[in-house]
Amino acid sequence: MLRSTASRGLTSALRAAKQRLKPKERLESLFQLTPEWLQARGLKGVILDLDNTVVPYKFRGEPTAELVAWVEGLKRAGVKLFLVSNARRKRLAYWSEKLGVAGTGLAFKPWFGFKKGLRRLGLSPQEVVVVGDQLFTDVLGGNLAGLHTVLVPPLSQRELGYTRLVRRLERWVLQQLG
């Protein structure tokens, strides 16, 4: 009896962990997130991860015309945008200025940053989507904050050594989630 209670507890804990790591949706590209896509889901704001979601990791240059057009199209449609990144504040400030999108760096995702983004957007969690390329920062943090979560593939294979290791675990978890 004790063993079955422990087994049920473990099964319940695993189910809860899966739900926290499972993105609500997966897209092949950030650019699939259109005003129409957002409106169909009742979403009015977007919290974006920076590195390998919006721009390749460590890239420092001019944003692509496609990226600028995408950001401007969302803004024209009345969509509110905010960057939440674990990148250094200087890097975040650089891209924030280039894209005309406010944000916060050194956000310590998944635990912090998303609530700040919600406050800055002035929206409820049900009205905001978080888009990122990592399960254990972007998706987990977004789900913990009650946001709609979208996972996109990373823009580049260039990453921190730690992130490359975590990617292996992510691939396994994604297989388990189906």
TrEMBL record:
<protein>
    <submittedName>
        <fullName>HAD superfamily (Subfamily IIIA) phosphatase, TIGR01668</fullName>
    </submittedName>
</protein>
<dbReference type="InterPro" id="IPR036412">
    <property type="entry name" value="HAD-like_sf"/>
</dbReference>
<dbReference type="InterPro" id="IPR006549">
    <property type="entry name" value="HAD-SF_hydro_IIIA"/>
</dbReference>
<dbReference type="InterPro" id="IPR010021">
    <property type="entry name" value="PGPP1/Gep4"/>
</dbReference>
<dbReference type="InterPro" id="IPR023214">
    <property type="entry name" value="HAD_sf"/>
</dbReference>
<dbReference type="GO" id="GO:0008962">
    <property type="term" value="F:phosphatidylglycerophosphatase activity"/>
</dbReference>
<dbReference type="Pfam" id="PF13242">
    <property type="entry name" value="Hydrolase_like"/>
</dbReference>
